[in-house]
Automatic annotation (TrEMBL):
Keywords: Antimicrobial, Disulfide bond, Fungicide, Signal. The keyword Transmembrane helix does not apply. Disulfide bonds join C28-C224, C70-C80, C85-C91, C143-C196, C151-C161, C165-C174, C175-C183. It comes from the Eukaryota. This is Thaumatin-like protein. It comes from Eleusine coracana subsp. coracana. PANTHER family: OS03G0233200 PROTEIN. PROSITE patterns: THAUMATIN_1, THAUMATIN_2. It holds the Pfam family Thaumatin. SUPFAM superfamilies: Osmotin, thaumatin-like protein. Belongs to the thaumatin family. One of its GO terms (biological process) is defense response to fungus. Residues 1-19 form the signal peptide.
C-alpha cells in the first residue's frame, strides 16, 4: 500500500493545486469590455473598474484581452470594433484582431506558469501582465508604447494596429508554409518590438518574450497602465 501511495502522491498533489486569481483592471480613460477564455467569458469595465476571475490549475491556451468600441443588447449580443469574439459579451472563442493579448499556460513543466504579452494579433490597448509573487519577473511583461499613433498606414484600422500576418497573410510574416522554420524579424515586427520590447512581435519571438512564475501565482492584467 505504501508503494502505491508513493506513486499516487504526485498526482494527488497536482490535482489539489489551487486556481490562480486573475485581477483585470481597466485604467484606460474609456470603457472596455474585458474578455477571458477559457475561464471568465467577458465583462464591461468602466474606467477604474476591476474584475477578478478564478482560472483552474493546469489551464493552457488562456487569453485575456480588452475589447473596444462595443455595443451589446440586453441578451449580450452585439459587436466590438476591436477584439470581438463572435458578437457576444461572454466570450467562448478567441478575439478578432487587432487585440493586445495576455497569454498563459499554468502549472506546466516543473510546475511553472508560462505567460506573455503578444502582439501577433496586433494591438488595441497598452497592457501590463504581472505575476504577483516571489520568483516572478518584477513588473514584466508590459507593453506601454503608443503603437496606434505610430502604426504604419497599411496596418492601421479603426481602434487598433494590425500585425503584418493579419493584413498580408504572407508566410514570411506568419511563420507558416515555406517560412515555418526559417522566418525572422521583419520591418513590421521590429516596429512592434521597438515600442514594446517585452512583447511577442512575431511567432518565433520566444527568446525575449516568454516569462515564468511558480505555479500557484496570482496575476494582474492592467489595461492602459
Amino acid at each position: 500500500m505504501a508503494s502505491i501511495l508513493h506513486l499516487l502522491l504526485p498526482l494527488l498533489l497536482a490535482g489539489a493545486a489551487n486556481a490562480a486569481i486573475f485581477t483585470i483592471t481597466n485604467k484606460c480613460p474609456f470603457t472596455v469590455w474585458a474578455a477571458a477564455v477559457p475561464s471568465g467569458g467577458g465583462k464591461q469595465l468602466a474606467s477604474g473598474e476591476t474584475w477578478s476571475i478564478d482560472v483552474p490549475a493546469g489551464t493552457t491556451g488562456g487569453r485575456v484581452w480588452a475589447r473596444t468600441g462595443c455595443s451589446f443588447d440586453g441578451n449580450g449580443n452585439g459587436r466590438c470594433e476591436t477584439g470581438d469574439c463572435g458578437g457576444v459579451l461572454q466570450c467562448s472563442q478567441y478575439g478578432q484582431p487587432p487585440n493586445t493579448l495576455a497569454e498563459f499556460a499554468l502549472n506546466q513543466f516543473m510546475n511553472l506558469d508560462f505567460f506573455d504579452i503578444s502582439l501577433i494579433d496586433g494591438f488595441n490597448v497598452p497592457m501590463d501582465f504581472v505575476g504577483d509573487g516571489a520568483g516572478c519577473p518584477k513588473g514584466r511583461p508590459r507593453c506601454r508604447g503608443d503603437i496606434i499613433a505610430q502604426c504604419p498606414a497599411e496596418l492601421k484600422v479603426p481602434g487598433g494596429c494590425n500585425n503584418a500576418c493579419t493584413v498580408f497573410k504572407d508566410d514570411r510574416y506568419c511563420c507558416t508554409g515555406s517560412a515555418a522554420n526559417t522566418c525572422g524579424p521583419t520591418t513590421y515586427s521590429r516596429f512592434f518590438k521597438m515600442l514594446c520590447p517585452d512583447a511577442y512581435s512575431y511567432p518565433k519571438d520566444d527568446a525575449t518574450s516568454t516569462y515564468t512564475c511558480p505555479g500557484g501565482t496570482n496575476y494582474n492584467v492592467i489595461f492602459c497602465p
